[in-house]
Design brief:
14 helices; Amidase signature (AS) enzymes; 11-stranded mixed beta sheet; homodimer; globular; 39% helix; alpha/beta
Chain lengths: 427, 427
């Protein structure tokens, strides 16, 4: 990554504070971000659409006193924007202009944040690869499907962006790009104005470079005070959940994970090894049934209108999903409901679960956006999850640590993640 | 209601069968429905937009072999249609033309059904009254928010329509208009292309005149075989759930309800009185908090863009909801989750719960669409519910019987409702 400099390197809170104390203006911040984009976009390719007028609009607007006043942000291209086309990463939505912003965009704008553009999304937030590259190495995937949001934030183009997660689409790219990705408990942020992928899982998420920035944005979204960050390590009960997917984790990521939990223990946290619940390995298959059934129905109209303009990946998901019977779907949903009850009991016994975010570093090439299974567990179980950068892998690329808390314990989770990010800085 | 005649009086299955056996054509069916609409629309006012070209398009199309081939239907005006404006009952969406159909519309069309138009909805599927009248008495409300869908089906303008239910917006108007209304388990039908009201509750539902028509449409939506309808009454365990709202039920509705359960007992069903769970009366208030919090955030963009074009009702919901703190919202969600577990155990002990659908007949006038509390219980608890017409009240207007089953037992519920509609025809 070419070394960034200037205001574009600041986080959300630093920008808010700096504008409030008149150290700099929103226009200067936007200008710095746009300059960074101009330099880096040819390589990173994070943007589906840029609002070229953003700086001019800021110049002519009255600075507001909102909690995010003057903070530039990016919007994943499956989230409606009234000011820019929202194209869902699909030819079928070429030039599509929603009349209104999605809820999350409207709330951020009402708090004073400034949308710089639409970030590249995999087609319909699925598994189709995108043109976006990993800011740390253009030969590697940034992950998906919130590819552009993660790359733009990691590359200092914007201090935060919205993404969506139906499987692992916020946390995986965040981990591959070395930033923080947060997926709230299911249903906490309104899905109004979001293209439905699989409605049982779809969750709006946040990408930023600092945990405390996530805390601030989360507070705006939820109408609460920002959480008191940095929880004490002492008495913290960390549930080490290796799961049935531990064997998929690469050696460098395993070693880094063991170092991270050792560091937490050294700081006073109690480690609790959580055995994988019986039958848990079947959960991935149940999710696949629900995901395909729902995605196919969510794309029924697009398929009828223009199947020929759908990518092979989306077409395959449609064909597989539309053939699934209602009985198979309900069977998978019943089983998943049971897993949710089971995990609720497990999580209740600790402050947070901890696992690697991904099996390892970002894979080489752009044709495969990485394995979603470690992240999608928590999306389907409806628990809040967050990834923080905490180490480098054998190729020097970022590795993420994933923390998971009980449903609705989102604010506590963010606090614990902040503590963790203090004790385990990437080295 | 003026006496209908001809093909418009047929139900969904009768239309499908008649076209298949060449007794009549889809064009004739559509023509009969449009003729009925022409006669009755000045009084009933069920339609926000009519597709004047429907008959001509049917004439020039090749008849398909789909499960709903040739069946006309209506679409609530908060459900996207690619062929007609979708205006959400709001000035803010005047002339709004979605690019694609909502999932439910696309699935019905793919099965051969023919959309005749958009039916009148309360603004944003809320509580604002509409211009639609009750087909049985134009001085009475048809109920809301799926006002037009219920009135159009009840008045023989279409054999079925889609509605949405966030509180009681499918079952209440169905009951007031004397037809069948079905709300599936939460999340069974895709919400793709539906304007979000309160995402924790929003459910696409069906309105028709016959339970067996609901069975067929449900099978199409879910990719299953239509349920074997008419369950035997013997050994059927009916949970009589009067709830904390029993005191709100009028005397005529109470008497009719007692007659209905006595008739079921006579046919061999076992009645099980279900006591109201402790603390259950607080559930309505918890729902109100969640509903307002989510609705306000779902309307944030519309509010920012044009608060002056929002009705007093929607403005009030927005103002109330946007002020609710995240902590209050999470507290209500936690409590509601507990109620869901509790009711799951109760419902598991019977085949179906049974309650009145509404406190009584449709209220006089159009300014109040009726009390949603008896219907919204099951929306918020995520259980499937269905209303069937089963009696007349003291003014001769329809009364509905509400049946509720365990989550995902939708097909069984429809079967039991069919049995019930055989033993307790309106008298």
């Amino acid at each position: 990554m070419s070394e960034p400099s200037g205001l574009c390197t600041l986080g959300v809170r630093q920008i808010v504070d700096g504008i409030r104390s008149r150290q700099f203006t929103a226009e200067e911040v936007v200008g710095s971000c746009l300059a960074r984009i101009q330099i880096r976009e040819p390589v990173v390719r994070a943007w589906a659409h840029l609002d070229e007028q953003a700086q001019q609009r800021v110049r002519h607007s009255t600075p507001g006193g909102g909690s995010l006043a003057g903070v530039p942000f990016g919007i994943k291209d499956v989230i409606d924007s009234s000011a820019m086309p929202t194209e869902m990463g699909s030819k079928l939505y070429s030039g599509h202009q929603p009349r209104y912003d999605a809820s999350c965009v409207a709330i951020a704008r009402a708090a004073g944040a400034i949308a710089l553009g639409m970030t590249v999304s995999a087609e319909f937030a699925g598994t189709q690869p995108t043109r976006t590259t990993n800011p740390h190495n253009p030969g590697r995937t940034p992950g998906g499907s919130s590819s552009g949001s993660a790359a733009a934030v990691a590359d200092f183009m914007v201090p935060f962006a919205f993404g969506t997660q139906t499987g692992g689409s916020v946390l995986r790219p965040a981990a591959f790009c070395g930033i923080v990705g947060f997926k709230p408990s299911f249903g906490l942020y309104s899905t109004s104005g979001i293209k439905v992928a699989a409605h049982s899982f779809d969750t709006v998420g946040l990408l930023a470079r600092e945990v405390r920035d996530i805390a601030l944005i989360h507070a705006v979204m939820m109408n609460t005070e920002p959480v008191a960050v940095t929880k004490p390590g002492r008495h913290l009960r960390l549930g080490v959940f290796r799961s049935h997917l531990w064997d998929t984790v690469h050696d460098d990521a395993k070693a880094a994970f063991e170092m991270a939990i050792a560091a937490a223990e050294e700081e006073g946290a109690a480690l609790v090894e959580i055995p994988t619940p019986e039958g848990f390995e079947g959960i991935t298959e149940h999710r696949a049934v629900i995901n395909a059934f729902e995605r196919a129905r969510g794309l029924s109209a697009e398929w009828s209108a223009g199947a020929e303009d759908m990518s092979p990946q989306s077409s395959e998901v449609y064909r597989r999903g539309i053939a699934i019977t209602g009985d198979a779907y309900l069977g998978a949903r019943r089983r998943l409901d049971e897993f949710r009850h089971q995990i609720d009991h497990i999580v209740a016994g600790v402050d947070t679960l901890i696992t690697p975010t991904t099996p390892g570093e970002a894979p080489e090439g752009l044709s495969y956006a990485g394995d979603p299974r470690l992240q999608e567990l928590w999306t389907m179980l409806h628990l809040p999850s967050i990834t923080i950068p905490f180490a480098s892998g054998s190729s020097g690329l970022p590795l993420g640590l994933q923390l998971i808390a009980a449903r609705y314990a989102d604010a506590d989770l963010i606090g614990i993640a902040d503590w963790f990010s203090q004790i385990s800085r990437p080295r």
